Amino acid sequence: MVIDQVTRFLSHKQFSSGDLWKNVKKEVRKIESEEGVLIFDDTVQAKPYSSENELINWHFDHTVGRSVKGINLLNCIYHANDASIPVAFKLITKPIQYTDLATRKIKRKSGTTKNDDLITILKACQKNQLKWRYVLADSWFSSIGNMKFINDKMKKFFLLALKSNRLIALNKEDKLQGRFQRIDSLDWSDSPICGWVKGMDMPIILHRQIFKNKDGSEGILYLISNDIGLDKESMETIYQKRWKVEVFHKNIKSNTGLAKSPAKKERTQSNHIFMSLLATAKLKGLSVKKGLSTFGLKTKLYIKAQKEAFRAWKQMQTLTA
User: Considering the entire predicted model, what is its pTM?
Assistant: First the structure.
């Protein structure tokens, strides 16, 4: 009976990013700040044994460096006053089928790019009158189009990671003469470098952050912003907030069962993902009130449920004795 009710609920309508906003709007308004940030990132959830369709198909997963059969989800997280709440999402579907000329295999592709999807979400956030100062994202979203849109149309700041092969001119004359250099060939110092990225007219600042990986190796992160008043400490501190989306992805996979839907149809599959996002948002709100991490709160709820189940079992034993 319960399973039938859940199935009917997941299939009666198509839940959207707009439905997510309606459900989290009240909590967002409580933490909202002019200094808030919008964090974008996508995640791939492997579903190797599910049937392929427009939603579940092959997506490139940059964390493993290859294509993976599963779900690709683009998330927008709002972070302010030490709280992080999902405010928008886009399921990456691939409805267009075509034949690969090299392999002769049928493949799928999306009708939009993830950069297109990011711009669509930004427009929705503006329409929802959400307060924010910076857009944070990794190098997969640092396209010229995205940076121009945030600067020119949104009138906001971005702080993004750049790939090492991006080109920059260090002064206006070099820009006009077309003299650009790869950012990994620049003579870096402790202070950010001012310049112009190839393809953009706005001045920007660049910073090279050097850090240690868990295995002890050295990593390099190139950061770019149109907020030319930032210093290196500010750039590193603000961009560190981008990690909140990684924690969110861990939550939806570990705490709210993103991959555990037995649904077979695309609508119920996508609605299960929506409910996973909503449950994570609600769990986060409750964890803030209780002063616990989401993982700690989940454990507490699980123990309480186990105790209640054991109590009910004992009562049944007494009644049948």
Answer: 0.86
